Amino acid sequence: xxxxxxxIGQSQAIRRTVTVIERSAEFDVPVLIKGETxxxxxxxxxxxxxxxxxxxxxxxxxxxxALPEALVENELFGCERGAxxxxxxxxxxxxxxxxxxxxxxxxxxxxxxxxxxxxLRFLQDQTFRPLGASxxxxxxxxxxxxxxxxLDALIExxxxxxxxxxxxxxxxxxxxxxxxxTGDATLIARHFADRFATRYQLPLRNISTASLQWLERYPWxxxxxxxxxxxxxxxxxxxxxxxxxxxxxxxxASPGLPGRYQTARDAMLASWxxxxxxxxxxxxxxxxxxxxxxxxxxxxxxxxxxKKHGIERVHFAPx
Length: 319
Description:
2 domains, alpha/beta, Rossmann fold, five-stranded parallel β-sheet, 9 strands, Helicase, Ruva Protein, domain 3
């Protein structure tokens, strides 16, 4: 049995979240996890699974935003040979792969209307029909779904079915953003610093005092994922005795004198901007149109920012 994953932190916000996770694991019903990008929604879903009675069965994650509309039912429910042009043999879908376990539907708010209807049918009675099949099958799967904060607006506008939301939201969990988790950024940064140093066989380094202070002031729009990427990069590039995360030039710099204001400000903004774009493209599999919608920016403007930072979208495309 896999070890239960853990949310790192000691803040009141994360303690309340862990309490809800533990309670949710006790009841075999759908759970809807809401939260900003990078807050740890999949980690919470894994905790629910591995604390539940289904822990010995598979945990199967799927990124709904990456499912082509025409193939959603095939991916979820499978197909019989000849069901469509490229169906050269029968294949099981994700429902069968997660049998007696948990199917985690990440970015469920990205599902098309057709996909929402297909999922609703399964949630109603746990029955499904593979494409091209003549009879229905029964599945024994717990559904845990995750959505961005925009879900409520999508329901209000009719772009996401309210009846599906009701089915998913038997139990609900809201992941707190890192900016609301006082003191946790420092703990998480130290965890990542040790983990990456061990992975790459590098010396274990303390994080500089100035960086620790900055960690708690910075608003973390990309949340824990942004912090992880930042620590990862600086761990690999660090040549000093201490790990510097906040735009300081080196450990030899005068203590308390971070340099010229404009230079430090520009460096920090550039670092944040790039981290945000990378996280955004990772979440949308390199789809600039969807990324612009998530960011609330015009597509062309976002494209210019991506080009400015030399980010290659192809690295984020589904493989």
